[in-house]
Design brief:
The protein is mainly α. The protein has 17 helices and two strands.
Length: about 500
């Protein structure tokens, strides 16, 4: 697909955007100024009259070196006095017909990454919220949802501003950090990104090996042979899904992931239908707000989606309204899913026992106490972990390949080896590493990469960069106060977790 770019050719006191991108495959081809006058004649690009005026001004200013005549000068002055506003930064064009193609999500990897949040934290939410109770945990879930929506909108805002300044789509988190925070921000972003992926892959392998071992009827501990059994199950899971990612085409991986998502929806519906019959409504009235802070890292982890916001902004053509709607609606659906899931699990098991210093998994109790619900829980858990595992493997492989400067478009074995085997080895060191890995990923990964950094990037973008640079309207109101609350909230949770770990040690 070819693209047309009008880059920084206009300079208005009141103009909000200095760059107009007509983009489809994120590869910007500069065109000569003498061709700019043709842009406003293309009706199929869905440009507004104001955008066509922009192209006329570019043509008047750049088509020739001769000064404009009186009529052209008058038209130019009228256009300069008008404030230019438009809904999107660029339009997707079909290379053959030059017709506008609506912003459709056709990338299989994008669909995969959208499903990541299904399995990242939902399996651990009942375990970390059982002490606080359903009512208190509901408040915590809604608060974490609102926090993650705000940080996602901060990322979207910085991403759109970066696209305007760089004049290209497909801007990554690393590029955003480099533009707003410099080399230090790039280093923090890279290492935190790698840490989150490794921690979650460790957690997924640990939990999947337990499920597979139980399903195959292999005892977890038989004369000290737990290491071998977990190695066997974890290796089966890792190699199966790792081979799918390495050898499978994008279409095949997308098909497999679609089947897994269908299985998740089916098993979740069956679980809610079956388990709701044994629901104890009095158990849902428990509220212990003092226990809420310890559950925040894993709850926040369940709402992670910010890594796909840059892709979302590009696919939606930089349309502010559509980006905002996608972020809010796309996180509201998982919020409702988490609340229903948490209510069913906590309301079904009324005799939850607590063990100081150890997390008791309600799902494990449910599997052992209910012969009908138990298999459904295992199927749902394994499918959720599977689709998440695929998404994180592909994400980390792409990141490592870029970090190692390997050729694009080729499946090299080194990134896959670095992605698959370290988490497999780490998951075998501790049978209870699932909750520890999720807690560490949520506290020191998610709250840094998707809490502190988005607010810091937005602060720098809004108040420290040159005011002459192109800026989109702010997606989050409140200015420095909201930014300070976001930074302070993440910092407080991280400090509390460090202090708690130090006291326990």
């Amino acid at each position: 697909m070819s693209t047309i770019s009008l880059m920084n050719c206009i300079s208005y006191p009141k103009q909000r955007i200095h760059s107009i991108l007509l983009n489809n495959n994120h590869c910007i081809h500069h065109i000569k100024p003498s061709y700019l006058h043709k842009i406003h004649q293309i009706s199929t690009t869905h440009l507004s009259n104001k955008l066509r005026n922009c192209s006329k001004i570019c043509s008047l200013q750049n088509e020739t070196q001769k000064p404009p005549n009186k009529d052209e000068e008058k038209e130019l002055q009228v256009m300069k006095d008008e404030e230019f506003e438009f809904e999107k930064l660029f339009s997707n064009l079909n290379q053959a017909s030059l017709k506008h193609e609506p912003a459709l999500i056709q990338d299989g990897k994008y669909v995969l990454k959208n499903c990541i949040q299904v399995g990242a934290g939902i399996l651990a939410i009942p375990a970390v919220t059982q002490e606080s109770g359903f009512l208190a945990s509901t408040v915590a879930c809604i608060g974490c949802w609102a926090y993650m929506v705000v940080t996602g909108l901060y990322i979207a805002e910085v991403n759109l501003n970066t696209m305007c300044e760089l004049g290209s789509g497909g801007v990554s988190l690393v590029s955003m950090a480099r533009r707003t925070l410099g080399s230090a921000g790039v280093q923090i972003t890279c290492w935190t990104y790698i840490f989150i992926h490794y921690a979650l892959l460790v957690a997924y392998i640990a939990r999947s090996s337990e499920i597979i071992t139980n399903y195959l009827g292999i005892p977890l501990i038989v004369d000290g042979s737990i290491f071998f059994n977990r190695w066997e199950s974890g290796t089966i899971f890792s190699l199966t899904f790792g081979a799918l990612c390495y050898f499978g085409s994008q279409r095949f991986i997308g098909t497999v992931n679609g089947l897994l998502v269908l299985g998740i929806i089916t098993s979740f519906t069956a679980l809610v239908a079956v388990a709701s019959g044994d629901l104890h409504f009095e158990a849902l009235l428990k509220a212990n707000f003092e226990a809420v802070p310890s559950s925040i890292p894993i709850i926040a982890l369940a709402f992670v989606y910010q890594n796909v916001v840059p892709v979302l902004c590009t696919n939606l053509e930089g349309d502010l309204s559509k980006v905002r709607t996608a972020v809010i609606l796309g996180t509201t659906i998982p919020l409702l899913l988490f609340l229903v899931w948490n209510g069913v699990i906590l309301g079904t098991i009324s005799n939850l026992d607590s063990d100081a210093g150890k997390i008791i998994d309600p799902l494990q109790q449910l599997r052992s106490s209910n012969g009908v619900v138990g298999p459904i829980v295992e199927i749902f858990s394994l499918l959720a972990i599977g689709t998440s595992y695929i998404g994180f493997v592909l994400g980390l492989v792409d990141f490592l390949a870029d970090l190692l400067k390997l050729p694009t478009g080729q499946s090299k074995p080194l990134p896959y080896l670095l992605t698959l085997f370290p988490p497999l080895l780490l998951s075998l060191l501790d049978p209870e590493i699932f909750f520890k890995a999720l807690d560490f990923a949520g506290t020191y990964g998610v709250l840094v990469l998707f809490g502190l950094l988005p607010a810091a990037m937005s602060w720098s973008d809004r108040y420290l960069t040159s005011p002459e640079l192109p800026k989109v309207p702010q997606l989050v109101p409140g200015g420095k106060l909201t930014l300070s609350l976001v930074i302070g909230g993440a910092g407080w949770v991280i400090f509390s977790e460090i202090l708690s770990n130090f006291i326990h040690t």
